[in-house]
Structures are given as structure tokens and as C-alpha cells.
Amino acid sequence: MSTDSAVSAETAPARRLLPILVPSLAVGVVSALVLLGVSLLADQLQDVLWETLPDALSIGRYSSLWMIVMLTAIGLVTGLAIRAVPGRAGPDPATMGLVDAPLAPGVVPGLLVVTVLALAGGVSLGPENPITAANIALAYWAGRRFAPDAPAALWVALAAAGTVGALFGTPVAAALILTETLASRPGPGALWDRLFGPLAAGAAGSLTMNLAAHPSLDLSLPAYTHTHWSDLLSAIVIASAGAVLGLAAVYAFPYAHKAFRALPNPVLALTLGGLLLGLLGALGGHLTLFKGLDEVKQLTADPSGWSSAEFGLMAVVKAAALLVSAACGFRGGRIFPAIFSGVALGLCAHALVDAVPVSLAVTCGVLGVLLAITRQGWLSLFTAAVLASDMTLLPLLCVASLPAWLLVTGRPQMQLREDGTPLR
Question: What was the pLDDT predicted at 184?
Fold first, then answer.
């Protein structure tokens, strides 16, 4: 090959990638703004539902009665909203993953409305799935309108990366998720060529969110200073236990979904789902409500504040609440509730055996539950490491992920086909 042709081959990818830089940044910023807007609306509504209203009625804010009444009412209102909005707020959420084909733009407003209701009402789901779906729909619509020659898959990847980058406050999470997806798909160019636009979108999304809201997954856990042989065994046992807890919810998922779908209409299914969530909240305490990110910080702020039985109960109740929320038709994601369940499980292990370091127990619990619930290896490992912000734990987490992955790989996923059978 001549020198000129070699230079041409090397520069061609750059000429192909540069034009998508500006659209990538724009999609990332808009994706973060949509997430920020929904989060702010949900926070305002949450204050009204869980503070203003119970105070006005002289009822305890998180009394068992109020949790049952409020979550039942949220189920009823959400069901009525889904019946009323165009497109019924999208497909059955049990059949949808984190990154799916674009929805029709007309579905987006209704989807965002029911997402706000779930987030504010205490439902054990996070914002990631519906916000990602909404941003993909908007990016795809705008992309096909203003740049019809660009590949359709580009807009899906950009919106997904921008949203995940905003959710985690870093584009690394988006890159890790898309690496698993893109590595299995044939396409021109090196992997980093295909990640160029999504990484730019993820960076723009995370920077926008960091400037506006300063999100953080750091739980301020005690520093992990020295690695011991006993810690290796603890890491493997706790991560494996987390995987088993997550798999229990995964295996129960199609049965719970079938039971709710046997009811005559979604209003009844969501109302019953809300009632069950209220009862679970009364059993596990108010910290087991909502998506779990703020609540998990309360748990880790006082690792000795609850007994091992109480931590274990919260871990199981949160997993059950996630199961009910996802099966009955509420719109939301599963990552943040799974984090809560994993943290509670890790704190349970620490309370049982106080020689197990808190940071090790918490991160390994999260790693195991996330592997089972999301089936995303890189995301699970990254999230567990970020919670402690301690690179000393990373080798132990890598080792602990191996037996946990052996437990979950090839098992059903927490996502169903349209006929109700689980994906594998």
C-alpha cells in the first residue's frame, strides 16, 4: 500500500465521525434536560403527596395507613392515565429493556406523565427505562426529520448514551452498556469508532446533569484499606447470595406478570399492584419505597442502625416490591431498586459477621443483585465500584463477579417476550 493510500485509510474514519459530533452533543444535552425535568416534577409532586397532604390530614407521613392508601391511589390514577393517554403510555413495560426500538413520538407525553406518578408515588422503580425510551423516540424523530441519511441506529445509541450518562453522572456507564451491545453487532470501523458519537452524547448528558443537579452515587462508605484472604471468600459468598436473591425475583417475574394480566383491565391490575406495594412498604418500612437512591444513602450512613434481620427484611421486601412494580404495569427501571436491595443485603452480611468490611459487603451485594436483574456485566461491576469510590476493592469485585455470573448466565432475564415467555 502506498503512503498516500495509507494516510487516506487512516483519515477516512475521522472525516466520517466529525459530522456526528454536534448532533451527539445536542442529543446528550436534551436527554439530560428531559431527565432533569421529570425528576424535578416528581420531587415536587412527592413533597405534596408525602408531606403536604398527610400533614394537612394529621396523618403520619410514612405511617402504614398512609403508605397503603397512597400507593393504592397511585396505582388507580396511573391505570386511569394509561387508559386515557395516546398509545397507552407505550408497550407492556415487562417486554421492554433499557434500550429498545423507538416509540412513536405521540406516546412520549403520556409515558412521561405516568413515570412522574410512579416516581412521586413511592413505586419501587427508577426513571431509567421510560426516560431512555422517551429520549430515543425524540432523538429518532428529530434525526429522521433533519438528517434522514444518518443510520436509524445512530439516534438510538446517542439518546441511550446521553440518558445513561445523565443518570450516572458519567459517560463511562453509557460506554460500558453500549460496548456490550455493539460488540455483538457487526459494523464498519473499530469499536471506538462506533462509540465516538455515543461517548460524546454521554459526556454531554453527564456534564449537563452535573452542572444542574450534582448527582452522586458515592455512598461515602468507610475506606477499604487492606485485602485479606478471608475477604476473598466473603466477596464470593455475598455476591453469590445477591445473585440468588435477584434470580428469585427473575424466576417469579413471569408468574407475577401472568397473574396481573389475568385481571380484566390495567386499572385493576395497577390498583392491586399499588395495594400490594403499600402492604410491602408497611412491612419493610418507608425506606423500601421509591426508586431507592436517596434511601440507600440513609442506610449506609448508619450501618449499625438496624439489625441483621431488619437489613435482610428490607433486601427481600425491596426485591419483592421491584417484582410487583415491574409485573403489574408501572413504568420504570430496575437498576436503582436493585442497588437498594443489594446494599441492604450487604449490610445484613456485615451485621451478621462484623469482621466483613462494610464497603466490601455493600459493593458485593450490589454486584450480585445487579448481575441477576440487569444481566449487564460491565454496568454491574462499574456501579458496585462507583458506590464505594475505592479502587482497592476492584480486584475483589472482579473475582466475586465470576461465580455470580456463572449463577446467572443462561438463566431467564427479567424481561418477557410479547407472548409472556421470559428472554434468556
Answer: 55
Q: Which of 158, 155, 190, 188 is nearest to 175 (CA)?
A: 158
11 contacts 193 by C-beta, under 8 angstroms: no
For the record, the C-alpha cell of 263 comes out as 385481571
Q: Cα–Cα distance between 361 and 132 in angstroms, integer? A: 31
User: Which run of H or E residues covers position 193?
Assistant: helix 191-212
CA 270 to chain centre: 21
Local structure of residue 169 (DSSP, 8 states): T
CA distances from 130 to 78, 126, 139, 293, 404 (A): 14, 9, 14, 17, 28
Q: Say if residue 178's pLDDT is above 80.
A: no
DSSP summary character for residue 94: G
| pLDDT of 305 strictly over 60 | yes
User: Which grid coordinates are listed for 75?
Assistant: 396505582
Q: Nearest Cα to 287, choosing from 142, 152, 124?
A: 124
Residue 364 φ/ψ, nearest 5 degrees: -70, -35
Which range of 166-170, 302-306, 335-339 scores highest in mean pLDDT? It is 335-339
Retrieve residue 194's grid coordinates: 462506533
Sign of CA dihedral 7, 12, 15, 18: negative
pLDDT band per the 50, 70, 90 thresholds, residue 6: very low
Residue type present at position 207: L
* SS3 of residue 126 by DSSP: strand
**Global pTM value:** 0.92
What sections of 48-104 are H helices per DSSP? 53-56, 64-84
The alpha carbon of residue 284 and the mean position of all alpha carbons in its chain are separated, in whole angstroms, by 21
Task: Report how far residue 202's alpha carbon sits from residue 185's, in angstroms, rounded to the nearest whole number.
Answer: 20
Higher pLDDT, 321 or 417: 321
Give the separation between CA 107 and CA 114, rounded to whole angstroms. Answer: 11
Q: Give the start-end residues of each E strand in 156-226.
A: none
pLDDT band of 189, cuts 50, 70, 90: low
Cα–Cα distance measured from residue 206 to residue 329, given in angstroms and rounded to the nearest whole number? 29
- Give the chain's end-to-end CA distance (angstroms, integer): 46
Helices (H) and strands (E) in the chain, counts: 17, 0
8 Å CB contact between 17 and 154: no
Tell me the per-residue pLDDT of 211-231, one tens digit each, with 9 for 90 and over. Answer: 988 777 778 888 888 888 889
CB 313 within 8 A of CB 265: no
Distance, CA of 27 to CA of 142 (rounded, Å): 10
